[in-house]
TrEMBL record:
Keyword Repeat: yes
Pfam families: MORN (PF02493), PIP5K (PF01504)
Catalysed reactions, as listed in the record: a 1,2-diacyl-sn-glycero-3-phospho-(1D-myo-inositol 4-phosphate) + ATP = a 1,2-diacyl-sn-glycero-3-phospho-(1D-myo-inositol-4,5-bisphosphate) + ADP + H(+)
Keyword set includes Nucleotide-binding: yes
Coiled-coil boundaries: none
Protein name: Phosphatidylinositol 4-phosphate 5-kinase
All residue ranges annotated as the PIPK domain in the record: 311-754
Keyword tags: ATP-binding, Kinase, Nucleotide-binding, Repeat, Transferase
Organism: Stylosanthes scabra
InterPro entries assigned: MORN (IPR003409), PIno-4-P-5_kinase_pln (IPR017163), PInositol-4-P-4/5-kinase_C_sf (IPR027483), PInositol-4-P-4/5-kinase_core (IPR002498), PInositol-4-P-5-kinase_N (IPR027484), PInositol-4/5-P-5/4-kinase (IPR023610)
């Protein structure tokens, strides 16, 4: 026995009834330290343990012959590790929660190799694939197939530069036959610009060697092991482009001396729809320059910014945003930290810069169009980011990093463009002029509200920017925290306003967990710990009062549900029916056998050393206190998954109750009540009333929520809309009402309909 601080560490051997054997260090009756565990199946693990979990560095050998050496967290491969599969495939790189994520190298047994980025066990981001036939692709991937810009080099020396969509050539590209040596400098410049647009440094092709922070997960013999990737699958989905070199036989022409000819091509989902031969000889280039000099002014038609970006909207906006944010953050970060002043909110609190395509002394060259950049109130938003402990470098890399931004569909009617950062921490949304004005007017009060109430549920803003194109067209953006930035899967999403008129989603528009549902689609009521509910309702009331003071309406509670063990539903219904069949009545818990439901989550006392305390875009403040845990700070334990901090709007446990057999839509006047029926007595003829019990589905859920769309003022247009709709519908059911009534209705809806008191 050896003493380690307050605890005693001992060595020992333990054998379970199923034949599992552990031999190693113990602390506080848990496997902690170094040891060896053997399972009856023949699998074994030798390495570090913590609190009874595989935690640290170790080697796992499965019964099938797969071997993993590297880091572990919560019984899953996490950090740096190397896995050798039984079919001789090898992956060496970063892991996250049991699957490759980050930078890594995968070598197939047939000789094909991939070096680059991974996400959720799939090839995604920037990477290089090299086939055994000598072909190489250097570019962007998504879900295991080529997607985005890239350079394909053929074994015979030819090069194709273009774009891909879902593994197929799509859009315009250029083919350079072998022998075009005079064009190699231009090719190198293009590849460099490809890197600069996406903020890619050469280090992304190397495996990062830093270890990840540790979090616990419960122990199970079925250690998560990724399915090996089939090189045949990737080869079939990302076929070699050697067939391209036979079109018009460019390789043969190059060998015959036509080294100054390149082929401009255009594809539509893998089908060649256009090919044009471009002569790049010296004489041709001179003639082209002379012709260009004759016309120094080109006519530009006036269009909306959507038309200007037509066909390349996502690409140009993405690149312009990254260039501007990178410039702004780099300029404001070195300024010494200080408290904001009234002048920081004024009209002069702006950073302006012109980004010409060819670059300048202060801006890099880029492949987009010329644009002007404006950053609003940079010191204010810098301090807001610091309130949430967002590191400037992490913030910049999240938005301006390797894989850029993802264009996502807007769930609302605004027509705004939405972007999601690659790590899903930030959402970027376009604003109209009136929304920009509302935010700037609100910003001083908003800043102090967020500062005073660290658990506020209101949208977190981290940057406000504008892009102005030549011709005067302007595009405005705001950077926000993603309320659904979590490792857990969000199974349902709701946008709740507290109104009912038109607040439902058509069945034909519902497509899986990404669909945002509305008020009348919500059939659940969420019961939670007494203290958690009180804290939630109190903060909702405070936030609504603030929005009311700013004359804001039309905001929503964005609610995300993560269901734990959905298979519990079937067991619950069967148990109810069996109980009803036995007793013919609803027996209270204290008068009969209680109904015991399987638990998908547990509240445990908060331990800062064993939960992830990293800051996030929607995480701030101390853990919440739970009444059921003696008013102590608590963590949420998801058996077999993770241990999470419980904070307001983040990782909040609850039970979702829904009546069995309820209609898809409920009218406003439809009430939830116990049905009664009269039963005639056989002996004395007396009438007896027997309650017919109603059945409810009960789920363990984890809730994520926040108040969004807070930039709509109750202006003259909204007043007119209120007057018009009040004549057609019940004034209390429409969304557009005056701010005081809107806030009162929102609070009442939240505390009575969404989060009612637990009976």
């Amino acid at each position: 026995m050896e003493k380690n601080g307050r605890f005693c560490k001992i060595k020992g051997k333990y054998k379970w009834l199923d034949g599992t054997i552990y031999d190693g260090d113990w602390e506080s009756e848990k496997m902690t330290g170094k040891g060896l565990i053997l399972w009856p199946s023949g699998s074994k693990y030798e390495g570090e343990f913590s609190g009874g979990f595989l935690h640290g560095n170790g080697t796992f050998t499965s019964s099938s012959g797969c071997t993993y050496r590297g880091g572990w967290r919560m019984n899953a491969q996490h950090g740096i590790g190397k896995k050798e599969y039984s079919n001789l495939d090898v992956y060496d790189g970063l892991w996250k929660e049991g699957v490759p994520e980050g930078c890594g190298k995968y070598s197939w047994n047939n000789g094909n190799t991939y070096i680059g980025n991974w996400k959720n066990g799939r090839i995604e981001g920037r990477g290089v694939m090299k086939w055994t036939n000598g072909d190489t692709f250097d570019g962007f991937w998504m879900n295991g197939v080529r997607h985005g810009s890239g350079v394909y080099r053929f074994a015979d020396g030819g090069v194709y530069i273009g774009t891909w969509s879902n593994g197929l050539r799509d859009g315009k590209g250029t083919f350079y036959p072998d022998g075009s040596t005079k064009l190699l400098p231009s090719l190198k410049k293009l590849c460099t610009s490809l890197d600069s647009e996406n903020g890619l440094a050469s280090e992304t092709r190397q495996v990062v060697s830093s270890k990840s922070k540790s979090v616990k997960r419960s122990l199970s013999e079925s250690i998560p092991v990724i399915n090996r990737l089939s090189s045949r699958q990737i080869s079939h989905r990302t076929l070699s482009l050697s067939t391209e070199s036979t079109l018009q036989d460019p390789a043969t022409e190059a060998m015959s001396g036509q080294s100054d000819v390149v082929y401009e091509r255009e594809y539509a989902q893998g089908v060649l729809i256009m090919e044009r031969i471009r002569d790049c000889s010296v004489s041709s280039v001179k003639n082209k320059r002379q012709n260009n000099n004759k016309f120094s002014v080109s006519h530009v038609e006036k269009n909306s910014y959507m038309d200007i970006f037509r066909g390349h909207r996502s690409y140009f906006l993405n690149l312009n945003l990254q260039l501007g944010i990178r410039y702004t953050v780099g300029k404001i970060t070195p300024v010494p930290a200080r408290e904001v002043r009234s002048s920081d909110f004024g009209d002069r609190a702006r950073i302006r810069m012109f980004f010409p395509r060819d670059g300048s002394k202060l801006t890099p060259p880029h492949c987009s169009i010329d644009f002007y950049w404006k950053d609003y109130c940079p010191m204010v938003f810098r301090n807001l980011r610091e309130m949430f402990k967002l590191d400037a470098a992490d913030y910049m890399m999240s938005i301006c990093g390797d894989s850029g931004l993802r264009d996502i569909t807007s769930p609302g009617k605004s027509g705004s463009i939405f972007y999601l950062s690659n790590d899903e921490r930030f959402v970027i949304k376009t604003l109209n002029k009136s929304e920009l004005k509302v935010l700037l007017n609100m910003l001083p009060k908003y800043y102090h509200h967020v500062k005073d109430y660290e658990n506020t549920l209101i949208t977190k803003f981290f940057g406000l920017h504008r892009i102005k194109l030549r011709g005067g067209k302007k595009v405005r953006f705001v950077v926000m925290g993603n309320m659904f930035c979590t490792e857990l899967h969000i199974h349902r999403r709701y946008d709740l306003k507290g109104s009912s008129q038109g607040r439902y989603t058509d069945k034909d528009k519902i497509s899986g967990s990404n669909t945002t549902l509305k008020d009348l689609d919500l059939k659940y009521k969420f019961h939670m710990d007494k203290n958690l509910r009180e804290s939630l309702i109190k903060q909702i009331s405070i936030d609504c009062k603030f929005l009311e003071s700013q004359n804001i309406i039309d905001y929503s509670l964005l609610l995300g549900l993560h269901f734990r063990a959905p298979e519990n539903l079937k067991a619950l219904e069967q148990t109810h029916h069996a109980s009803m069949h036995r007793q013919k009545s609803l027996v209270p818990a204290d008068e009969g056998e209680p109904l015991i439901l399987p638990k998908g989550l547990l509240l445990v006392t908060h331990e800062p050393s064993v939960v992830n305390t990293a800051p996030g875009p929607h995480i701030r403040g101390n853990p919440l206190r739970a009444y059921s845990m003696g008013d102590n700070e608590v963590d949420l334990l998801l058996p077999g998954t993770a241990r999470l901090r419980v904070q307001l709007g983040v990782n909040m446990p609850a039970q979702a109750n829904r009546k069995v057999g309820e209609d898809h839509h409920i009218n406003n006047d439809k009430k939830m009540m116990m049905k009664k029926k009269k039963v005639e007595g056989k002996d004395d003829g007396d009438d007896k009333e027997e309650e017919e019990a109603e059945l409810f589905e009960v789920y363990d859920v984890v809730l994520y929520m926040g108040i969004i769309d807070i930039l709509q003022a109750y202006n003259l247009r909204k007043r007119a809309e209120n007057a018009y709709k009040s004549m057609k519908f019940d004034p209390l059911t429409i969304s557009v009402v005056e701010p005081k009534l809107y806030a009162q209705r929102f609070i009442k809806f939240s505390q009575n309909k969404v989060f009612p008191q637990t009976p």
